[in-house]
Every structure is written in C-alpha cells, then in structure tokens.
Design brief:
Blueprint: H1 2-20, H2 36-42, E1 45-61, E2 64-80, E3 86-91, E4 107-114, E5 122-123, E6 131-132, H3 137-143, H4 156-161, H5 169-180, H6 183-207
Parallel strand pairs: 3-5
Antiparallel strand pairs: 1-2, 1-4, 2-3, 4-5, 4-6
Helix pairs in contact: 1-6
Amino acid sequence: MNRFVMALSVVFILISMGLVLPSKSYACSCAMQPDPIKAVEQSKAVFSGKVLAIEPKVLDINGILDHKIAVHFAVEKSWKGMNQTQAIVLTNLGEPSCGYTFGLGETYLVFAYDYDYKENMLQTSSCSLTKKLTDATSELSKMGQGADPIENVSLKDKMDTMAFTNKWALFEAIYHRLVRYHLLEFLQVAVILVIGAGLLMIRARRQS
C-alpha cells in the first residue's frame, strides 16, 4: 500500500512540475524567405539602425516568463512603420530558437513584426530578412532610399524598465499555468488521486 501511495505521489509531483514551471521553449523552423518588397508588406516595421545596446530581458506575460534579448537601435532610415529616432526590438536567445545575433555598434536592416503577446512591442528573428546593412545591397536596391525618422525620442529609460523585477512571478505562474491554462489537466490529476485513495480505503477495509 505504501508503495502505491508513493507512486501516486511521484506521478502527481512530476505532472505538477511540468504544468507549473513558467518557461517557454522554441524550435527554429524557417519557411522560404519572401522577396524584399513582400517582406516589407508582411512586416510591422522596416528600418535601418545602429545598435546602441543589447540586453537580456525576462518579460512577465501573465505569469509566464519569456526570456528575450532586447536590442536598442538608433534609427537611420525607415521604410515602414518607424517614425521615431530610436527603436527597441526583441529577439529570441540563440540561433536554435531563431534568435538573431546582433553586434554592438553595428548597423542593420531590420524587418520587425509584432511580439506575440503585446502589439506595441516589436521582434525579429533569423527567419526574417534582417541582416547587416553592408550585406543588404540587393534588398536596398529593390526597396529604395527610405525616409528619415521625424520624431525625436530616447528609449533608454524604457530599456531599463524592461528589466524583470516581479518577485511574485512564481505565484502568478502557478495560477496561470494550473488554473487558467491547465485546469483540465489539474482536475484529471486530482481525479486520479481521489480514485487511488478510494481504492486504498476499500482494500484496507477488506483486509481488516
């Protein structure tokens, strides 16, 4: 009987850990890249800019922690959706998760789209046409000159406030991962435990 209880406890703990841990995983798989004009149409913003800062960030998305790299740009030219002189673009960590590796002080042609969870944030990936400006001769020849940004802004404070500081994230994660997103699975585990406990009680009565 003790072994049966221990087995049930181990199953419950393993399933609960899988549901609670507030992490996200990615697997990079890129479709064929479109031509530059089509890529501009599909993007939220397209601009060229010099990298001012590169910082790892942990974003709290409804209790789920999303690890990203935030890249701070000084915008030089815009082809779509970028009127400000600075921009912040997110990317995943590492090439296996389609993250694009930027270099501090380098200038890039960036194709950005909406971040999955917040429309006012931009992200890019290695699956896009984002590349160093010196390697983008072909794209630039088709896209034309671009326009100068007209709104002078500083986003350094925004970069600083993106640092993760929510000490209650674990409790939020438990709520969202168990109650909001995985209530059905949690109930299934609870039912299994109740049935197991009932069987143990019946067995104990028969043996007494």
